[in-house]
From TrEMBL:
PROSITE patterns: INTEGRASE. GO terms for molecular function: nucleic acid binding. Residues 433-448 have a biased composition (Pro residues). Residues 348-362 have a biased composition (Polar residues). Residues 348-455 are annotated as: Disordered. This is Integrase catalytic domain-containing protein. Residues 367-432 have a biased composition (Low complexity).
């Protein structure tokens, strides 16, 4: 036997053996292993890389060997290394506002009452005073911070020396601002929020207090913004052990704060009604106290009946009663996160509390109920039944007015805009004010019935100084702002006409001032429109358009209606009032009273090409209008029509009109008219373009004439002034036309020509969109879509989807001259079938962007080399619904943008290279068609077109005629670009993503990149006031 071992803790421990005879110790009094210099490493590995303290303890007590301290293990750092401890900051400020900490909280899943999803938090390092600003979008932080720096310097005469935040893009974008103002920018390391710990801990403190306020008042989630604002207001006035039990307010303003004006958040409050309309109107407004307004000696209240925020200084509080406490029990969690429940009142059970029986009884004053109650009114009335009435005879306990201390926070634009509220007291005094109780009214008999005045009621005189805007009536769309009291963001700050010469300014003014009736009843009230309708009927009868007859058995007549249009002269004055009779062709039956309907119209790309050619070569552009164009077509089908409004005579009630000539509105009318026009213009030597059938050109020696027709509007440009006279003379000989002179207004597009080039915009149309959306006084935004936004179909459905479809449909036509909104409108148009509230909010953001530059448009330069170049891009799997990619490309003729397109690809791409390759094919097809069109316009391109792409893999696929496993599944038509590269029609070039102009068509960009891109596209705003 060599030795004995005992098992303990999974190991065998050897003990020494002795003999009684020899008493000799066997040489086995150490472990059975042969210990060498590597014993430490060996046992370190056996024990699973135990830590040095544990290994030292085992070696000393059980293994009897010494630990070598210089042994290093390269496995332990890989398996165990953690982040180093964060030592306290050694940098501390010595006076207020030297160092500020900043961060953004959000995005929260529910919008606040003001529509905010974020709030910006600013904490002073020395005083711990906190400011927060509610924001709808993160990009508002940049402007808020700039205003905050100005506020600090003005109020405290202090320059902020250091700014600490995380690595948010909204803060990084201010780096140049910090450098210009000498501010040290300290930002935390990536994934290290501990380095911005001051504001992170402040967020936790704010949310703790805000949650307590919300749970105390049982308010819906939409009040989270007011909870946060009130929480910060309170926190700034609470003593802190970190500050030696002083308050942040005291350290910042060197005075102790007042607490006498504080009230319980969310409690019931009655505000004096200062807008009484008659003697028996209610004298107070039942409300909920929600916050302390900035810069006013008042309280911010939430009207329970109108669900509007307002401010008032004449308020009586009942701090032990919370109106939403009774509503809370009747609402599920689904309702809590949805629209704010409306507390309504039934006349049979008044909202006003029942007074004590020992006091003078006063009849309850009924409150107007909301049109869409969520909870039964009885639930609220019963919950208030034991509460003292504000109209009791005994005076209530006096209550103090709001604090007179200076406003410690800035007025943020994203906070709730109050409804018209009582004016604040002009003098702010530190002494509390007493709110006197209104006297109890004397009982009076039933009033006599009053005679209603027959005098016409006009608008109030006080509204003469305001611009009233139309607002959507759907109460469910709370995100639609209503008319503002005064205009904080006037439209004059974003559109001006000082760059135009006086004649064109007159034209624009006339264009903006005219209004057209929308129905027969409106038009018949004006003599000029009655005369226009009479002239139209005479022209139709003289043309033999119909003949009155009895309706044959089995036949069904179609209806008709009037459409009104004001025609303008070239100087902007009204030329005539045009009334057009239009048939209701949607009631026609295919195969019965019509066959083919297709008729070509000018493509808008052709219009831009024509304008670019005229601008570069200095050719004049003229416009003509065909009178009653559709009446020239002959009908082969048997069609009957009901008499138009205003033509039905007595004794002819059963008569209908048998149509012999084509009429506006008929499905075949445009086809018949175009066939007539094509036949006539071809007889004059004009050749119809194969690239655009609405384009006709004629070359006679050195004379070149191009004519483009869009229904009954004709554009003409020539290189010889004599030829334009001959062309007009020929057209007059075949059709009755009106010569509108030089081109200024075409298809809703305003055209302004100068020596530098031609500028087109849809200013009037954009202003109409802004006005119809009720956003004339709204705050503009810098980009049409929030950066990184991905719209999905997860939010609540709109109750009135027609408003969304109408708005997006109008925005689609606005993209004719606005490539800057093309991507946003493309994404919005994906949800036309089932639009949701988030989609409507995104659409209204586009309108707010239009407010920033309604006159923005395209400029076609007079300096052009007529070289074709295109940029193509794709966002791989960018659609969150289908995971398909989006193709975007833009094509330039010289420096002028003539074509752009954005389209979701037909199938899912397996890689970004495949998506970019498909986008290259789409751009190549457009380049091929444009070469044909420009050749018909007299521009033959012998040089290949340049196609720029920012994906090298896609460029290699296009250049190499090989098929491998990553490309063999791509459809054969996508390889069309390879043939064009081979025959020399197209040359591909690599461009970095920074200079990829098509990037604006595939994703929403930030402000700085977005502005840079639209300038590169040739988008300008000559209406800008600056």
């Amino acid at each position: 036997m060599i030795g004995l071992g005992k098992q303990r803790d999974g190991l065998y421990y050897l003990v020494a053996l002795t003999t009684e005879k020899s008493k000799l110790t066997l040489p086995v009094n150490r472990p059975a292993c042969n210990l060498t210099i590597s014993s430490t490493d060996l046992w370190h590995r056996r024990l699973g890389h135990a830590s040095p303290p544990r290994l030292s303890f085992i070696a000393k007590n059980f293994l009897n060997f010494s630990i070598q301290s210089n042994n290093a293990c390269h496995i332990c750092p890989l398996a165990k290394q953690s982040r180093l401890p964060f030592s306290p900051s050694v940098i501390s400020s010595i006076k207020p506002l030297e160092l500020i900490h900043c961060d953004i909280w959000g995005r929260y899943c529910h919008p606040s009452l003001s529509g905010a999803y974020y709030f910006l938090t600013i904490v002073d390092d020395f005083t711990h005073f906190t400011w927060i600003f509610l924001m709808r979008h993160k990009d508002e932080a940049k402007s808020i911070l700039k205003r905050f720096f100005s506020f600090v310097f003005t109020q405290f005469e202090v320059h902020i020396k250091a700014f600490r935040s995380d690595n948010g893009g909204e803060f990084i974008s201010l780096r140049s601002f910090f450098q210009d103002n000498g501010i040290v920018f300290q930002h935390s390391c990536v994934y290290t929020p501990q380095q911005n710990g001051v504001v992170e801990r402040k967020h936790r403190h704010i949310l703790q207090v805000a949650r307590a306020l919300k749970f105390q008042a049982h308010l819906p989630t939409q009040f989270w913004g007011e909870c946060a604002l009130t929480a910060v207001h309170i926190i700034n006035r609470l003593p802190s052990p970190v500050l030696s039990f002083k308050t942040p307010f005291e350290l910042l303003y060197s005075k102790t704060p007042s607490f006498s004006y504080l009230r319980v958040f969310g409690c019931l409050a009655y505000a004096t009604n200062v807008h009484k309309s008659h003697k028996f109107d209610r004298r107070s407004i039942p409300s909920i106290f929600v916050s302390y307004p900035i810069g006013q000696k008042a309280y911010k209240l939430f009207d329970l009946s109108t669900k509007k925020i307002f401010t008032s200084r004449d308020v009586k509080f009942y701090e032990d009663f919370f109106p939403y406490a009774s509503v809370k029990s009747n609402l599920s969690s689904h309702h809590e996160s949805g629209p704010i429940p409306c507390i309504t009142n039934d006349p049979s059970s008044s909202f006003y509390p029942i007074p004590n029986t020992s006091q003078t009884q006063t009849p309850p004053i009924p409150v107007t109920s909301s049109p869409s109650p969520v909870v039964p009114p009885a639930s609220v009335s019963s919950s208030l039944s034991g509460f003292p009435s504000p109209h009791r005879s005994s005076p209530p306990k006096s209550q103090s007015a709001p604090s007179p201390e200076p406003s410690p926070t800035l007025s943020q634009s994203s906070s709730v805009s109050p409804s018209p509220s009582p004016s604040a007291s002009p003098e702010i005094s530190p002494s509390p004010l007493t709110f006197p109780s209104p006297p109890s009214p004397d009982p009076s008999p039933d009033p006599m019935p009053l005679r209603r005045s027959s005098r016409q009621a006009g608008p109030l005189a006080k509204l003469n100084d305001y611009v009233c805007s139309a607002v959507y009536s759907d109460q469910s769309l709370s995100l639609l702002p209503g008319p503002t009291k005064g205009t904080r963001y006037p439209l004059a700050d974003h559109v001006s006409y000082h760059r135009y010469h006086p004649a064109y300014r007159s034209f624009v003014a006339q264009l903006s001032s005219v209004a057209e009736p929308r129905s027969y009843s409106e038009a018949v009230a004006h003599p000029e429109w009655r005369e226009a309708m009479r002239s139209e009927l005479q022209a139709l009868q003289a043309n033999g358009t119909w003949s009155l007859t009895s309706l044959l058995a089995g036949k069904k007549p179609i209806g008709c209606r009037w459409v009104y249009k004001i025609k303008l002269r070239s100087d902007g004055t009204i030329e005539r009032y045009k009334a057009r009779l239009v048939a209701k062709g949607f009631t026609q039956l295919e195969g019965v009273n019509y066959q083919d309907t297709f008729s070509p119209t000018a493509k808008i790309v052709s219009v831009r090409c024509l304008l670019t050619l005229a601008a570069a070569r200095g050719w004049p552009l003229h416009q003509m209008d065909v009178n009653n164009a559709f009446l020239h077509g002959d009908l082969a089908e048997e069609i009957y029509m009901s008499p138009p409004p205003g033509l039905r005579r007595q004794g002819e009630e059963d008569m209908v009109g048998r149509l012999h000539k084509s009429l506006y509105g008929l499905k075949q009318a445009s086809r018949q008219w175009f066939a007539k026009f094509s036949e006539a213009i071809s007889s004059a030597g004009f050749v119809q373009s194969r690239a655009d059938y609405s384009l006709f050109t004629r070359t006679q020696g050195k004379s070149f004439t191009a004519l483009l027709i869009y229904v009954d509007d004709i554009l003409i440009t020539v290189n010889d002034p004599v030829s334009i006279v001959a062309t007009k003379k020929f057209l007059h000989s075949h059709f009755h036309l009106k010569d509108l002179g030089k081109l200024k207004y075409f298809l809703g597009i305003e055209i302004y020509a100068s020596k530098k080039g031609i500028f087109i915009s849809q200013r009037k149309y954009a202003l109409e969109i802004i006005k119809d959306a009720g956003l004339l006084g709204a705050a503009p935004v810098d980009t049409p879509m929030e950066r990184g936004l991905k719209l999905s179909d997860k939010s609540d459905l709109l109750k009135n989807s027609s408003q969304y479809r109408r708005l997006v449909g109008r925005l689609i036509y606005l993209t004719v001259s606005r490539p800057d909104i093309t991507y946003a409108v493309h994404v919005l148009s994906r949800f036309m079938h089932q639009p949701r509230k988030l989609h409507m909010e995104a659409a209204l953001r586009v309108v707010r962007y239009l407010k920033s530059a309604p006159g923005q448009g395209l400029f076609f330069s007079s300096n052009s080399d007529f070289k074709l170049r295109a940029y193509c891009d794709s966002d791989w799997a960018g659609c969150p619904l289908t995971r398909r990619s989006t193709t975007g490309y833009c094509v330039f003729l010289g420096p002028s943008l003539i074509s752009w397109r954005l389209k979701r690809q037909k199938t899912v791409s397996l890689s970004s290279a495949e998506a970019e390759y498909r986008a290259m094919t789409g751009a190549c097809c457009e380049l091929t068609w444009l070469r044909h069109l420009l050749r018909d316009l007299g521009l033959s391109h012998h040089d290949p077109a340049l196609l720029y792409c920012d994906n090298k893999a896609a460029l290699h696929i296009a250049a190499n005629l090989v098929f491998h496993e990553r490309t063999r599944h791509i459809e054969m038509d996508c390889h069309y670009i390879r043939d064009k590269i081979q025959d020399g029609s197209v040359i591909t070039r690599y461009v970095s993503s920074t200079h990829q102009l098509a990037d604006i068509l595939t994703k929403p960009l930030g402000k700085e990149i977005f502005v840079h891109m639209i300038h590169k596209l040739g988008v300008h705003d000559i209406h800008s006031p600056t």
